[in-house]
Amino acid sequence: MTVKIRSLTGQTQDVSGVPREGTVGDLKRRVEAAMGIPTASQRLIYSGRELSGEEHTLHSFGVADQSIVHMVIRSEAPLVQERGMEGGAGEQNGYQAVVVEYGGEDIFETYRMSKWVMIFAYIDAFFLFLFGLFIPLFLIFLVFPISAIYGVKQFKKAYLIPYGLFLVVEIIGRLVFISSYGGSSSIVFNILSILIDMYILNLVSKLYKRMMNLTPEQIQQLTVFGPLGYINRV
C-alpha cells in the first residue's frame, strides 16, 4: 500500500511498497529509503497518535492505504538545518530529504503536554460534577477545569490561570486539613492528592510558558497533530 508522509511544512511525499500487514518499523524503513531520513530521527503521528513501538502493526493504529501520516524530525537529527533553510529540501546519500522546521520537537512536546492538561482537567470536572450532585456548591468550581479545557482548545493561555489558582487553593486546603485533623488513612490520601495536584500545576505552568514562546507559525503547525482544536492565529 501507499502511505502519504506529510511534514510540518505541508510537503507530502508518497511512500509506496508498505506491507498491508506491516509494522511501524517497516514504514519507517520505507520512509528512510524514499526520503533519506534515518529511522531513529523519525517521529510519525497519525490521527493525533504517535506510531510508537517498532513491532506494532500499522493496522492497530488505523493506518491504511492512502493514509496521511504526519512526520516530525527529531530536533537533534543531522538533517534538520538552520532556521534560514526551513521548509527546504536537501540531498543526502542520493535521497531527497524533506526538512522539517527547526523546533519541530518542541511543537510535538507542546501538543503532548496540552493533551495531558486536558485529560486532568476533564477528570477534575468529572469528579466535581459527581460531588455537585450531592453538594451543589461544588458545581460552581466546575468553571476552573472548564476554563483550562477552553484555554487549551482555543490556545488562549490566560484561561489556564484560573485552573492553576484552583490547584493552588486545593493544595493549600488539603495541607490545612492534614494539619487540623487526624486519621492516618485520610492523611495518606490527602498527601497523594497533593502530589498529584502539584504535578498537574507544574504541567499547567510549563504549558503556559510554552504558549507564550511559540510563534504564530508554530501554533498553526500544532493543528496537524489531532483534535485539540487549536485556532489558526497567523
- Helix share bin: 40-55%
Main β-sheet: number of strands, strand sense, barrel status? Answer: 5 strands, mixed
Q: Give me the strand/helix succession.
A: EEHEEEEEHHHHH
Reading side by side through the largest sheet, how are the strands ordered? 2-1-5-3-4
Instruction: Count helical runs.
Output: 6
User: In what range is the share of β-strand residues?
Assistant: 5-15%
Chain-averaged pLDDT: 80
**What low-confidence regions span 5 or more consecutive residues with pLDDT below 50?**
76-103
* Helix/strand class: alpha+beta
Number of strands: 7
Give the overall form: elongated
- Quaternary structure classification: single chain
CA(first)-CA(last) distance:
36 Å
Please compute the radius of gyration using only Cα atoms.
22 Å
How many domains make up the coordinates?
A: 2
Defining traits:
two-stranded antiparallel sheet, Ubiquitin-like (UB roll), 5-stranded mixed sheet, alpha+beta, 6 helices, 234 residues, 2 domains
Q: How would you characterize the overall build of this protein?
A:
- With 234 residues, the chain is an alpha+beta fold.
- It has 2 domains: 3-101, Roll (Ubiquitin-like (UB roll)); 107-225, no CATH class.
- The chain is built from 6 helices and 7 strands.
- Helix 2 (104-134) runs antiparallel to helix 3 (143-154) and helix 2 (104-134) crosses helix 5.
- It is elongated.
